[in-house]
Amino acid sequence: MPSDNIPPENDTGNTSDHPETAPSMTSKGQPNTRPRKPRKKMGSASGTQTMNPEVDTGDGGSYPMAIYNEAAVECNKIRSQGANKPGAMCKKKWSTGLRPIWKICCEIDTRSGLGGFDTKKGAHITAESEHVWADFVKSNPSVAPYKHKGWV
User: Fold this and answer.
1) N or C: which end of the chain has fewer CB within 10 A?
2) Where is region (Disordered) located (predicted)?
3) H helices within 1-152, ranges in order?
4) Is this structure's pTM higher than 0.85?
5) Is the pLDDT higher at 42 or at 61?
């Protein structure tokens, strides 16, 4: 006679037939009771998509491929030479070239005591903030080129 507290062998703990609402399983085979994070929506009410690093990012801070494909369409509109650029090329350019620079600029902009960052003129370094800048460059050598010049 089966015990009341032992589930049947075919019971997976799934209380729903729909896979989106079914609980996931932990590595130990137990139902995961943590609430799921809602998925982020792409685009806006007008249907346009933008490359804003603070919105529409997927897991790991990366954009969905649809964003890169849309960026490729826009790049191809203004391209003056060479072949059409695919979305994969835009993704590579963002991840290996532009995103690291963008992160450096954000570090400078959010650093307390520096006064911000201008994309054309660089860091807002004054005589009062020179010592803060010197300490910042010692701990982050990659910011040094942006003292008096931006990245645009």
Assistant:
1) N
2) 1-63
3) 65-78, 87-93, 99-110, 130-139
4) no
5) 61
